[in-house]
Design goal:
single chain; 283 residues; alpha/beta; D-Maltodextrin-Binding Protein, domain 2; 2 domains; ten-stranded mixed sheet; two-stranded antiparallel sheet; 9 helices
């Protein structure tokens, strides 16, 4: 459970299971929609035990994908910022414990960590390939996925990419790769490590004709390669969410209430604006 926040050594914090209806709200029996009733009550019940644990060194361990700029940015002083960091810090503050950020270099490294016990929450895409290990909150941000093309590449829009002879680079282990492997029937998919530099290199060296990724990163790559261009259209919309271990799925009503709050109070939108993101929106 998310309430199994670890301390040093083998000590484990055990807290009572939250009452679904009492803490957050009831679920519509026809639609499955959750209706938060009182976030403050939910935070008080869920956070009280965590605050007690926090005094003894317990932390909320939050996994991040450092190569994805729509989620993580690096500040001039070397510290991490961005939307996922803002969300993690806000959740830890509401629960009354310190946050322990766990950045992973790329999506593949993050995926490798899913089977470990290195963190409590993961802030990344709602990816079906991760559902074996994670249950997901409601979406805190939507991200458009599209293509950036190298100079001279044949496709002129997203619809023309899936053709014989076209090579599509994509970050290995990422949500866009999962989607493209399902959608693409004729073009060749070329997995590369996640991040700006591998993407730029794949296009600059001709290893690939287009790179499939979130449009914010696509624009950055286009700006860095003379003659490169972001193609009109998109191939997917990625939903960013808080992932918790499947054993903690009973805590999702509390997490959902938190996400609904930070979507409405400007927390997420302010983080988007601070990071200067393009091609994203708060649902």
């Amino acid at each position: 459970m998310l309430t199994d926040i670890r301390a040093s050594g083998s000590a484990r914090l055990h807290t009572p299971k939250l009452s679904f209806n009492r803490c957050v709200g009831a679920r519509n029996s026809l639609t499955g929609t959750r209706f938060p009733l009182d976030w403050n009550e939910a935070r008080t019940q869920f956070g009280f035990a965590l605050r007690r644990g926090g005094e003894n060194g317990h932390k909320l361990r939050a996994a991040l994908i450092a190569s994805n700029p729509v989620l993580v940015t690096q500040r001039s002083d070397g510290t991490l910022g961005g939307v996922s960091v803002a969300v993690a810090r806000a959740l830890a503050a509401h629960l009354g414990v310190p946050v322990d950020l766990k950045p992973y270099d790329n999506p593949a490294r993050y995926n490798e960590s899913l089977a470990t016990d290195e963190w409590d929450i993961g802030l990344a895409a709602r990816d079906p390939s991760r559902a074996e290990h994670l249950a997901f909150s409601v979406t805190f941000m939507e991200v458009d996925n599209g293509y950036v093309a190298r100079p001279g590449a044949a496709p002129t829009n997203a619809e023309e990419v899936d053709r014989p002879g076209v090579k599509i680079a994509v970050a290995q282990g990422s949500a866009p790769e999962t989607v493209l492997r399902r959608l693409i029937k004729n073009a060749e998919i070329v997995p590369v490590p996640g991040g700006f530099e591998p993407a730029r290199e794949a296009l600059a060296t001709g290893k690939a004709d287009v790179y499939g990724e979130n449009l914010h990163l696509a624009h950055r790559i286009a700006d860095a390669i003379p003659g490169a261009r972001v193609l009109p259209g998109r191939f997917n919309v990625v939903q960013m969410a808080i992932g918790v271990r499947n054993r903690a799925a009973s805590e999702l009503p509390t997490i959902d209430a938190f996400v609904n709050r930070i979507r409405s109070d400007g927390t997420v939108q302010n983080a988007v604006a601070e990071a200067g993101l393009r091609g994203v929106r708060v649902p």
